[in-house]
Structure formats: C-alpha cells, structure tokens
C-alpha cells in the first residue's frame, strides 16, 4: 500500500486517506438519496381509475390527482401491501377496491345465485370472483361471509367439489417454511388456514384459502373431516 502526505505534511496510508474522503462525502450522498426518496414517495400522476378510487375513498371526485388524494391512496395501499406504494390510482388498487365493494354487496346473503350447492348439508363455500367464503348447512348460513385471499395467477385455488380430509391446528409448511395455523386441507396441498397478511395483499396465496385468524378459528370449530367444500368462480387478475 502506498503513502501520501496530507495537507499538514503528515505521512498516512493511501487506504486510510481514501476512507476518510469517503466518510466526508457520505453526508452529501445520504441527503441526496433522502431527497430523491421523498420526491418519489407520492406520485403527481393521475391514474386511469382516478375517479373511481376517489369515490371509494370519499374524496372529491374530480379525476385529478392532488396531494391529499395521493396521501389517501397511499394509506390504502400501505394497509393492504399494494406496491409500489406511491398513491397511483392504477388497476391493482382499483381491483382491490372493486372486490371490497362486491363483498359488501353480498351482505348476509352470499349464495343468492345458488352457485354453492344447498343439498349437501354442512359445506364450506368459496367464491373466487368475490374472494368470499362462508359455511352453510343446506341453504342456512352458519358463518360468514368473510373475505379470503386465494391463489395467485399461476397457482390458482382449484375449483370444484372436494372434502376436508386432514386437519392440523398448528401446521408447519415444508414448502413455504411458514406456520399455517388452523389448517384444514381439502384439495391436495390446498387448505383453509390463517395468515397475518391483509386479505387483499396481492398477488395472492400459493393456492390455499387464506383467512383472518378469527375466521380460520371459527372454521376449525365448525368443520370436520369429511365435510364438503365447493370452490367456484375466478379470482380477479388470474
């Protein structure tokens, strides 16, 4: 390693000099990065679903992005894990909101179209289109409907009739290396189980029907091995 002289004439190693120079330059770099991050944190662009998103959030519906619009959109995106979290009224944000509206419209009568069988006794129904699930006995609603998070594009939750065949209250996934509390398997490796994520967190699960903890626990108490499960519809975005 070579040596150089500093401004006072002292002999110091070249590597040390370069390290000192780097430290002196670091504050300017941090400030520059911070400023860039702040500038990119909230978009000024008007999204293709601006008016619909504004209406959903209770904002003035003028179709023009404002700082207050962006703040409200970003808060929604951050709550549900939608990225990039920059306040842009894009397709994923609106798709999530539209699903919420469909779930709200279902009220306490999720099976008015009779798409889930009513002649099988106790059955767990999963509507992929509305991302809803409920338990019914014949045509009588026993629990729900509740929001669920089903398989992402390429790992969709399989549709059709099946039965609960294995239950594990504290299951460990050897595939994803995560806990799957209140697991009730009904189709291959696909199961009802609880997660800590938002039910609207994109792009979705690996095929399981994710649930909030209280809902997964309620399903655990309601269902037994041999109970029917019926999955139908198509998840938005798949």
UniProtKB/TrEMBL annotation:
Name of a matching Pfam family: YkuD
Domain of life of the native organism: Bacteria
GO BP of this protein: cell wall organization; peptidoglycan-protein cross-linking; regulation of cell shape
Domain L,D-TPase catalytic: 121-232
Keywords recorded for this protein, A-Z: Cell shape, Cell wall biogenesis/degradation, Peptidoglycan synthesis, Signal, Transferase
Cellular component GO terms held in the UniProt record: extracellular region
Pathway(s) served: Cell wall biogenesis; peptidoglycan biosynthesis
The keyword Cell wall biogenesis/degradation is annotated on this UniProt entry: yes
CDD domains: YkuD_like
InterPro entries in UniProt: LD-transpeptidase, LD_TPept_cat_dom, PGBD-like_sf, PGBDSf, Transpep_catalytic_dom
Signal peptide: 1-39
GO molecular function per UniProt: peptidoglycan L,D-transpeptidase activity; transferase activity
Catalytic site positions: 193, 208
PANTHER family per the UniProt record, alphabetical: EXPORTED PROTEIN, L,D-TRANSPEPTIDASE
Protein name: L,D-transpeptidase family protein
Organism of derivation: Streptomyces finlayi
High-level lineage: Bacteria, Bacillati, Actinomycetota, Actinomycetes, Kitasatosporales
